[in-house]
Amino acid sequence: MGNFAAWVSAICLIFQSGYGFYLPGSYPRKHVVGCYLSVKVNSLTSIDTEMSFSYYSLPFCKPKEGVKDGAENLGELLMGDRIENSPYMFKMYTNETEIFLCQSNKLSADDFKLLKERNDEMYQVNLILDNLTAIRYTKKEGFMLRWTEYPAGVNIQDAYYVFNHLKFKVLVHKYEETNVARMRGTGDAEVMPGIGNGGSDVHG
Q: Where in the sequence is the signal peptide annotated (predicted)?
């Protein structure tokens, strides 16, 4: 009987301690107006192959402070995600345009070959803001489609283009507290890539 009571007590303690447990980074965060919001990058993934690569395996702009691991919770680690910081940075409730990120070096023959291979293999970029996946919207035959990634580049008539001019639209929930807000549900952090400079707000 004593052993049974001990087991019951232990189980109760486990449930009691687990009641208030949460994974850091998995809950909504409040942001003061004007505070910085950092965009993170996940692994490059393909709809054509199972192999994934680090975002920085391609010659994209890197953060000034250097590339750092950006995983925040156990779930991201268990999923095998390779989340890293990025040079993309926003201010809460602040509209900004024509932001210059970096001047890329001239592509080497190896870099150009790798970019072509990744484009031909249909690799996609995955961005994260405040633990929410950035969503790309496209229209097809009158329907609005949602994508959780955007192409690293595209091949048009044997000419290769890299999507390095991005336009972001971030939607937020406003709190009753003064100058405080938080990100909305998954899918409401939008990223819209385009070819050329027209309509581009963020340069990469």
A: 1-20
CA distances in angstroms from 30 to 40, 75, 85, 172, listed in the order given = 18, 21, 20, 10
145 belongs to a structural domain: yes
What is the per-residue pLDDT for 11? 33
Tokens read off for 146: 């949602």
Query: Considering the domain boundaries, does residue 12 fall inside one?
Result: no
Is residue 84 situated within a structural domain? yes
Question: 10 Å Cβ neighbour count for 173?
Answer: 13
Answer yes or no: is pLDDT of 105 > 90: no
Q: What does the pLDDT average to over 47-59?
A: 91
Residue 166 pLDDT grade (very low, low, confident, very high; cuts 50, 70, 90):
confident
pLDDT at 12 over 60: no
In terms of residue numbers, what domain contains 97? 27-203
Q: Are strands 189-193 and 132-140 parallel, antiparallel or unpaired?
A: parallel
What is the total count of domains within the chain? Answer: 1
Give the pair of three-digit tokens for residue 59: 């010659």
Name the CA radius of gyration of the chain, rounded. 21
CB 123 within 8 A of CB 160: no
Other CB atoms within 10 Å distance of the CB of residue 70: 19
